[in-house]
């Protein structure tokens, strides 16, 4: 997958897996990594799907309606890419913290829903529930931050609560942080995520 890798100064620190929103690129979230932890590695990936030229991580049938078969295929593809990238760039495969926004948060959520060992933790900005009606892996010991909007037109407050419950029922520790700026990724939310990360 097309990506940027930046080696951090401290090998004990995690690798941030940056996952952009629809129409974004692997450049978009680079400043976020610096806000959270300047010493961590950064692996920023571009989605392999194009929707009218806009990069995404999986296909959708309409806004908010996912192509489930493609979501599953692309989740596997990203998980395998993480194995390869860890080998190629020499980082710890078991210490990846996803940082995703919107469509990128949705594929990060899907990694958690499908693979027990894909991520150590995740910061999900404005995620949806990636799939319903499936059994999640045991996510004990995983930490998840959800940045949600009380008035997010793409993801209802109820869906954000549902995602929290589904992850918690699988054993994850989840912090749900609310803003009221619609689907936007606000600086307040980034700062809250950084504070959460620093208290892990
Ligand atoms: C998605 O398709 O992942 C969500 O609708 C969020 C978006 O990318 O607009």
From TrEMBL:
| Keyword Nucleotide-binding attached | no
Q: Which residues cross the membrane?
A: none
Identify the residues that the record assigns to the Dienelactone hydrolase domain, covering every copy: 82-183
**InterPro entries attached to this UniProt entry:** AB_hydrolase_fold (IPR029058), Dienelactn_hydro (IPR002925), LYPA1-2/EST-like (IPR050565)
Keyword terms: Hydrolase
GO MF annotations, alphabetized: hydrolase activity
State the protein's name.
Alpha/beta hydrolase
Q: Which organism is it from?
A: Lentibacillus salinarum
């Amino acid at each position: 997958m097309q990506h940027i890798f930046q080696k951090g100064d401290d090998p004990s620190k995690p690798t941030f897996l940056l996952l952009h929103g629809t129409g974004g690129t692997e450049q978009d979230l680079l400043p976020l990594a610096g806000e959270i932890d300047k010493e961590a590695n950064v692996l920023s990936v571009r989605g392999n799907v194009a929707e009218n030229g806009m990069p995404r991580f999986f296909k959708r049938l309409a806004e908010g309606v996912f192509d489930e078969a493609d979501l599953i295929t692309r989740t596997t593809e990203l998980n395998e890419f993480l194995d390869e990238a860890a080998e190629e760039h020499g980082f710890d495969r078991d210490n990846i913290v996803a940082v995703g926004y919107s469509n990128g948060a949705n594929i990060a959520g899907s990694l958690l829903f499908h693979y027990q060992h894909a991520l150590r933790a995740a910061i999900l900005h404005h995620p949806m529930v990636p799939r319903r009606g499936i059994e999640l892996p045991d996510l004990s010991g995983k930490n998840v931050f959800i940045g949600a909007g009380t008035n997010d037109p793409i993801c209802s407050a109820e869906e954000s609560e549902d995602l929290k419950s589904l992850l918690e029922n699988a054993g994850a520790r989840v912090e749900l942080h609310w803003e009221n700026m619609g689907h936007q990724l606000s600086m307040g939310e980034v700062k809250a995520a950084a504070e959460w990360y620093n208290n892990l």
